[in-house]
Design goal:
The chain contains 4 helices and no strands. It has helices at residues 2-18, 30-76, 80-85, 91-99.
Length: 108
C-alpha cells in the first residue's frame, strides 16, 4: 500500500512536470520523505504501546498462574502444626504461663 502511494506520488509529480505544470513536490521529493518519516514514527509508537500492553498482560498471567499454583499446593497439603495451631487454646494454662515468674538463676 505504501509503495503504491509513493509510486503514485512520484508519477503524479513527473506527469505534472511533463505537462508543463508546476510540480507539487520537486525531484528529491522531500514531502514524501517527511510523510514516510512521520508514518514510521507513528508505527514505532503504536508497536511500543502494544508491546507494553502485552508485557503487562503477560505479567498478570504469570501472577495468576503463581497464585493458582500456591492455592492448589496449600489445598492438598497436610500440615499437623497448622492443625494444632488451629485448635482452641486453654486460656487458664496460657494465663498461668504468662504470669509465672521465672526461676532465679544462680549468680556466678
Amino acid at each position: 500500500m505504501i509503495s503504491v502511494v509513493i509510486v503514485a506520488w512520484i508519477g503524479l509529480n513527473v506527469l505534472f512536470a511533463s505537462l508543463g505544470h508546476h510540480m507539487i513536490d520537486s525531484s528529491p521529493f522531500p514531502w514524501i520523505g517527511e510523510a514516510i518519516s512521520l508514518t514510521s514514527l507513528y508505527r514505532v509508537v503504536l508497536v511500543l504501546i502494544s508491546q507494553k500492553r502485552e508485557d503487562q498482560l503477560a505479567h498478570h498471567r504469570e501472577m495468576l498462574i503463581l497464585e493458582l499454583a500456591i492455592l492448589s499446593d496449600i489445598h492438598d497439603r497436610l500440615d499437623p502444626e497448622a492443625e494444632t495451631m488451629g485448635q482452641a487454646a486453654d486460656t487458664q494454662s496460657v494465663l498461668n504461663a504468662v504470669t509465672k515468674k521465672p526461676a532465679s538463676r544462680p549468680q556466678n
